Amino acid sequence: MSALVVEALSRSFGGLRALSNVSLAIEPGERRLIIGPNGAGKTTLFNILSGALNASSGKVKLFDRDITPLAPYARAKMGLARTFQITNVFPRLTVLENVLLALLAADRSVFCMHQRMHDNERLFAQAHAYLEHWNLGAIAARPAKAISYGEQRLLDLILAMAMQPKVLLLDEPTAGLSAAEVVRVVGMIRSLPKEITIAMIEHDMDVAFDLADRITVLHQGCVIAEGDVDAIRNNAQVTEIYLGAD
User: Fold this and answer.
1) How confident is the prediction for the chain on average, in pLDDT?
2) What DSSP line would sit under 10-67, residue for residue?
3) Alpha-carbon distance 144 to 95, whole Å?
4) At what angle are helices 179-190 and 149-162 packed, to 10 degrees?
5) Sheet (strand 80-82) strand order
6) Where are the alpha helices (DSSP H) in 63-148?
7) pLDDT for res 244
8) DSSP track, 62-86
9) Using one digit for the tens of pLDDT, what is the confidence trace for 32-73?
């Protein structure tokens, strides 16, 4: 059983065809990198996978269940989490409070109208454990807007992990980072448990080749190549269309 399957997915915006008959299957525990030049349809694909955008045609399946008609929150409840190109943290809340909210969303049983969240010791222990595990414990009390962009990207990943996903969609997690920050974020992604299946959009080829089990290449809304790192690295069409663009 594949973790995530896309069947003949297409999406049009008026007369513009953003995706055309895209199909792929990602196996449990796989690290699948999605690459392609600007305008290839990568983010449109992720928007459809996460439920933020409806497909014009085709299907999306999560562990053999058709999730095509489901809203984003329903997909999240089934174990599909996502990060975005732009960090999705609450800037005025502290780092700790951001994680607490993610934990609340993942476990609605902790909602209680007559109990203050600060009285929930288990929830706070979980939040601190996440931050300590990913080496952000020292900045737990700082507002998210006051930490570095690289730390915000790490926090974004922690928020997604707090949802306890089975499948994690990462939309350009290294975009805009310094070389040192890229190393830190890549290290975090590499250390994620293999029980979590990852599909990741990435523009940095060094990062893509470093993390990928398999790579899918999009160009003008179509899949033009798919294979392991060596197959993609040696694919003449990919070199001409994408890698040679740099």
Assistant:
1) 90
2) EEEETTEEEEEEEEEEE-TT-EEEEE-STTSSHHHHHHHHHTSS--SEEEEEETTEE-
3) 5
4) 10
5) 80-82, 167-171, 197-201, 31-35, 214-219, 222-227
6) 72-77, 95-106, 121-133
7) 56
8) ETTEE-TT--HHHHHHTTEEE--SS
9) 999 999 889 999 999 999 999 999 999 999 999 999 999 999
Write b or e for each residue in 128-155: b if 16 or more Cβ atoms lie within 10 A of its Cβ, otherwise e.
Answer: eebbeebebeebbeebbeebeebbbbbb
Which tokens go with 54?
């409806």
- Residue 246 structure tokens: 């740099």
Average pLDDT score over residue span 139-158: 93
Cα–Cα distance measured from residue 189 to residue 3, given in angstroms and rounded to the nearest whole number: 18
Structure tokens at 69: 């008609």
At residue 119 the predicted structure's pLDDT band, cuts being 50, 70 and 90, is low
pLDDT band at 104 (very low <50, low <70, confident <90, very high): confident
Number of helical H runs and strand E runs in the chain: 9, 10
Domains by residue range for the chain, with CATH: 1-79+165-246 (3.40.50.300), 87-164 (no CATH)
* Rounded-to-integer distance, Cα 73 and Cα 170, Å: 17
Contact criterion met (CB below 8 Å) for 90 and 101: yes
* Contact by Cβ (8 Å): 80, 166: yes
Distance between CA atoms of residues 103 and 97, nearest Å: 10
Average pLDDT over residues 122-146: 93
Can you read off the two tokens belonging to residue 64?
Answer: 């053999």
